[in-house]
Design brief:
Distance between the termini: 45 Å
Strand content: 15-25%
Oligomer: single chain
CATH topology of the largest domain: Spore Coat Polysaccharide Biosynthesis Protein SpsA, Chain A
Helix content: 40-55%
Number of strands: 9
Mean pLDDT: 88
Radius of gyration: 19 Å
Order of helices and strands: EHEHEHEEHEEHEHHEHHH
Low-confidence stretches: none
Length: about 280
């Protein structure tokens, strides 16, 4: 196995945070890597901060604003090596993160993708997060349907697997990782390393998940697409139908609570149509 890893950091207006993320990469005990920082049209001029590290392993790529998925995809497209890892610009790796994942994949040919645990930090203090407690390993398509418990910053995978799965979808403003993990979980087992190897910082005002109501709306769309793809087994199809109906019911209730009647009408119609299809299948 090639010992080199391509690391991709998408960046948008986080000049004050990117230095911490870069330092955590440069401290890795597995030093064979390239670091691609894809600046997605930032206006806070992060280039000088990035260039101050003067490390030949760092590649700075600037593009017009396209969103986090476009930035990650660009990084993978520009990458040189068969293994890839993602790091969000506001997160931080512990020094042995790459080494632990690389060793697992090197010693086990069946492992094409793996992820790790994380520790959550808010306002400078550790805090318990439900996503730190809900982790699964192996054939986990059913578990991936329920929620997104795999953080992008925890993942290492084969570049070929990422490309075959279709990369990140560009039309998901949020839950793009949920959508990708679903598609990968139909093709591959996903392995979990039960160690908190990243520090994840929550509570930023610019976090995308805080800017959109009803994240299950995007998960519903991801499930509908994978149901229409024709790649699911009969068992996976039944599991997807079941979770789709449950998520539609949740969004219908949330739409009424927020008096979003157009959304209520849409998701009630989806729920009714999918319920009928389930009964007929």
């Amino acid at each position: 196995m090639n010992t080199y890893i391509s690391i991709i950091i998408p960046l948008y207006n986080r000049a004050g945070l990117i230095g911490r993320a870069i330092k955590s990469v440069l401290r890795q005990t597995h030093a064979n890597f390239e670091l691609l920082i894809v600046d997605d049209g930032s206006s806070d001029e992060p280039a000088s901060i990035i260039q101050s590290f003067a490390d030949k392993r760092i590649r700075y790529i600037r593009q017009s604003r396209g969103g986090v998925s476009a930035a990650r995809n660009r990084g993978v497209t520009e990458s040189r090596y068969p293994l890839i890892a993602f790091l969000d610009s506001d997160d931080e790796w512990l020094p042995n993160k790459l080494e632990r994942q690389y060793t697992l994949m090197r010693d086990n040919n069946a492992v094409r993708i793996c992820y790790t645990g994380e520790s959550w930090i808010r306002n400078g203090n550790p805090f318990p997060h439900r996503k730190s407690e809900q982790k699964f390993s192996g054939a986990i398509f059913r578990q991936c349907l329920n929620d997104c418990f795999i953080g992008c910053s925890t993942v290492m995978m084969e570049k070929a697997l990422f490309m075959r799965a279709g990369m990140f979808s560009l039309d998901f403003p949020v839950c793009e990782d949920y959508d990708l993990w679903l598609r990968i979980a139909t093709r591959s087992k996903i392995y979990y390393i039960n160690e908190p190897l990243i520090l994840k910082y929550g509570g930023h005002d610019d976090q995308l998940s805080r800017q959109y109501w009803g994240l299950d709306r995007y998960r519903i769309e991801a499930i509908r697409r994978i149901l229409a793809s024709g790649i699911l087994t009969d068992q996976q199809r039944r599991q997807a139908f079941d979770i789709l109906l449950k998520k539609c019911a949740i969004v219908v209730g949330g739409s009424l609570k927020r008096k979003r009647y157009d959304a209520f009408s849409l998701y009630f119609s989806i729920w009714r149509a999918q319920n009928l299809l389930e009964q007929l299948s």
